Amino acid sequence: DTEVTQTPKHLVMGMTNKKSLKCEQHMGHRAMYWYKQKAKKPPELMFVYSYEKLSINESVPSRFSPECPNSSLLNLHLHALQPEDSALYLCASSLEPGAYEQYFGPGTRLTVT
Amino acid sequence: AQKITQTQPGMFVQEKEAVTLDCTYDTSDQSYGLFWYKQPSSGEMIFLIYQGSYDEQNATEGRYSLNFQKARKSANLVISASQLGDSAMYFCAMREGIRTGANNLFFGTGTRLTVIP
Q: Is the CB of A86 inside 8 Å of chain B's CB atoms?
């Protein structure tokens, strides 16, 4: 199994809603990542989890709250988002925190209304 | 300063021809890695090829090869025998401090490749 899965594929939420994005991998990878990608822009790193511990938070606003319940699962909890938070949210994993390649999931297209 | 520069916003190539996508990078690290990813319209980022700064030979993976010129700080992607399925956005990326386990992956702005039948 060489796949990173993400659910939901699409999400539309209001500014007062609370929702969560889910990412899962069963490759035994010990590093997992959240990226945000605006239209026609490259992905930007948001968070890195190494061995289930948050190791990097790229100054992301607190309305985004990551969680790593176990080594296979990564969540991104969303609350009180703004329309400018609309983007493609990509999850990735790598074998080790410093490993060469990161394997990406298909992403969740988020629209905040 | 931009760490990764891709100067070609869009490229066209005839099916079965080869195409080169340009990438230059900026780093003062001695140990770094260069990556190319493909992003189809579906959104998934697909890893294509990796080149380490200490690798003496250019990386190759099937129809993909990386033309690594360290002195010029360039890492161009060459796709041979283009196929219609190669139409996608292509991102060049770099990770500095490879040997220290750093995690930041810096992406360029991408090149949209269109393969013409």
A: no
